[in-house]
Automatic annotation (TrEMBL):
Listed name of the protein: Uncharacterized protein
Residues covered by region (Disordered): 1-25
Domain of life: Bacteria
Length: 148
């Protein structure tokens, strides 16, 4: 079935529910040569931080460092008596395909893009969104994810 959405109300099959979603403009954090888009908002009774950035690091190394970052954020949330709802990230890497013709033969070259697009979200309950944003910013500041 189709899902219809209008102003925070979602209709699924034969029932509906609404979300209080107060979003503000994202801020840009600068860590070395990386720009991180950070957005803090509230949805229902949860505080949500969404993050997005690009990395040229090795995917496996990035995965290990993301796990450590998430553990540090989780520790700090619980130290503030917050409840962890969900902390997650997706890492996307695109394949680059080049088709070129210099004479009469077309040639194809393929390579994996060195860029990784990272989308992350931190969802927590019983903690103010500004406090959660400070926790995330502090964890990002001390993370080796962004070292040169």
């Amino acid at each position: 079935m189709n899902e219809i959405s209008h102003e925070g109300t979602h209709v699924h099959d034969y029932h509906s529910h609404s979300h209080d979603h107060h979003e503000h403009a994202p801020i840009s954090l600068h860590k070395n040569n990386t720009i991180i888009a950070l957005n803090a908002y509230e949805q229902d009774d949860a505080s949500v931080i969404s993050l997005e950035w690009k990395s040229c690091k090795d995917a496996r190394q990035t995965e290990v460092l993301l796990k450590q970052l998430f553990k540090n954020i989780a520790r700090d949330i619980t130290e503030q008596n917050g409840i962890i709802g969900h902390i997650k990230a997706s890492m996307e890497r695109n394949e680059v395909i080049i088709i070129s013709l210099t004479n009469t033969e077309a040639m194809k070259k393929e390579a994996l893009s060195p860029n990784i697009q990272i989308h992350a979200a931190v969802i927590a309950l019983c903690i103010d969104k500004n406090t959660l944003a400070q926790i995330v910013e502090s964890a990002l500041a001390s993370s080796p994810l962004f070292s040169i």
